[in-house]
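Sample entry (102 residues):
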Amino acid sequence: RLTTGPTMRRTPLHGVFSSHLAVSAPDSTLFALVRKPKIPFVPTDNPHTPMIMVGCVTGLYPIRGFVHERDPQHAHAREPGFAVGGRGAGLAAEDLGEGAAH
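Predicted structure, serialized as tokens:
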């Protein structure tokens, strides 16, 4: 799914990759570089461990991945721990963490 989202300034926030895909022809070639992260970014093996996920200057898809990881656990009668996600605005003055600090 391609998405754009409102920012705190009430203007559309267009992701770089999503915006590129939105204007690309359906059969066009996409060149991309995928790098393995230096620090593995995976949830804990124990689904009962609570998680707080914050992605600064990122889309919601990394956080959405965690939700999809936990979703099947409900189907198998496992109770996952508390999980909450959020993202920064990309500007310190508008970032939730910055505002909470003052």
